[in-house]
């Protein structure tokens, strides 16, 4: 460092000190002035400050409500069921013989009394002829015995034996004629020939299945209803049956089981529907829409439903004292948009917004909405 720089450094330091002192004085003056200004402002508003309360009363929770009224509703019960023929009969052989003719054709419509199968009659006719001869013989013996008995040439015991033999021969003749009649196997009901398992020439025995006759002009639809819903049903309830392809049929409930199924604990129901065209729908699955009696119910969006601590479904509402109340209810019908419920008062003010911040017993500030749910 040279001598010249050493001589000027004290002067610079003095100059900087003077400037710093001046700035500090200016800041101090500004602070003092501003303090007086704030004090004046505070003094002007001091009455307002003194008038402010030291504590505030908390406001009631605000909820949005809607006045809900009961209306007439026709509930419908939706079930899944199966269609079956109202009449289906398996025809059995009642005598042993060989199939001689089979006039019935598989799948054809056959009237009641028409012949399905003709069995061989040769053996049966021979048995009938033999039985007729036996009857003639025993009747002749009985007539002769009665003449001898009148002349006291025959004991009463022998006469009774001849009478019993004659009666037995007549019974044998009746059996032989019946066996001959059983060689003509006829349709017991009108319907479609659904099976013909045996062919001409085959030997049949009593109990063999000859044919299956199915009447599909009248159908029976069977379904199962839960324990909760069976009490709402009654005989004669109208219903609509919809097939998978969209075809619909109409009928009414004809049977409701009095005992629940052991496995499912549900109750079987049946209904009859007409199928005059004989459409091939027996055995198909179907959806049943059963119309139940009209009731007074409320229509509520499912999002407003809630559960109480015990698991009971219900809805929160506000009573006349503006207190939150839980009303239990019963669902009778629902979809993604609305639920139809019963068990509520005819008219009530339900909470539509803010229910999550309240509980039964809370006092609230309700605001009634005008727009529908």
From TrEMBL:
Transmembrane segments: 15-33
Multidrug resistance protein MdtA-like barrel-sandwich hybrid domain sequence ranges: 88-215
GO molecular-function terms, A-Z: efflux transmembrane transporter activity
Keyword flag Transmembrane helix: yes
One Pfam family this sequence matches: BSH_RND
Gene Ontology CC annotation, any one: efflux pump complex
Assigned keywords, A-Z: Membrane, Transmembrane, Transmembrane helix
Protein origin, superkingdom: Bacteria
InterPro entries linked: MdtA-like_BSH, RND_pump_MFP
The keyword Zinc appears for this protein: no
Family: Belongs to the membrane fusion protein (MFP) (TC 8.A.1) family.
Protein's recorded name: Efflux RND transporter periplasmic adaptor subunit
């Amino acid at each position: 460092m040279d001598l010249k720089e050493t001589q000027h450094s004290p002067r610079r330091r003095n100059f900087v000190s003077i400037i710093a002192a001046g700035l500090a004085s200016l800041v101090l003056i500004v602070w003092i002035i501003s303090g007086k200004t704030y004090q004046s402002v505070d003094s002007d508003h001091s009455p307002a400050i003194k008038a402010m309360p030291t504590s505030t009363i908390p406001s009631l929770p605000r909820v949005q409500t809607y006045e809900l009224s009961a209306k007439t509703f026709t509930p419908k019960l939706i079930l899944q069921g199966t269609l079956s023929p109202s009449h289906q009969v398996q025809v059995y052989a009642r005598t042993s013989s060989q199939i001689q003719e089979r006039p019935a054709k598989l799948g054809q419509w056959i009237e009641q009394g028409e012949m399905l199968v003709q069995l061989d009659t040769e053996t049966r006719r021979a048995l009938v002829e033999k039985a007729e001869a036996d009857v003639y013989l025993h009747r002749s013996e009985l007539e002769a015995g009665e003449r001898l008995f009148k002349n006291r040439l025959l004991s009463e015991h022998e006469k009774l034996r001849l009478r019993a033999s004659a009666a037995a021969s007549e019974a044998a003749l009746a059996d032989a004629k019946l066996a001959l009649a059983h060689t003509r196997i006829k349709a017991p009901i009108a319907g479609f020939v659904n099976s013909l398992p045996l062919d001409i020439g085959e030997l049949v025995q009593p109990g063999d299945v000859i044919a299956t006759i199915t009447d599909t002009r009248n159908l029976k639809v069977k379904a199962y209803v839960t324990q909760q819903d069976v009490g709402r049903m009654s005989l004669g309830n109208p219903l609509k049956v919809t097939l998978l392809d969209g075809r619909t049929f109409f009928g009414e409930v004809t049977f409701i089981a009095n005992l629940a199924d052991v496995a499912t604990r549900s109750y079987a129901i049946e209904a009859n529907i007409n199928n005059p065209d004989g459409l091939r729908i027996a055995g198909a699955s179907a959806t049943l829409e059963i119309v139940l009696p009209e009731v007074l119910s409320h229509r509520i969006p499912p999002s407003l439903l809630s559960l109480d601590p015990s698991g009971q479904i219900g809805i929160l509402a506000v009573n006349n004292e503006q207190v939150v109340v839980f009303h239990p209810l019963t669902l009778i019908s629902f979809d993604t948009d609305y639920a139809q419920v019963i068990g509520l008062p005819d008219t009530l003010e339900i909470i539509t917004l803010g229910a999550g911040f309240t509980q039964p017993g809370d006092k609230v500030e309700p605001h009634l909405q005008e727009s529908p749910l």
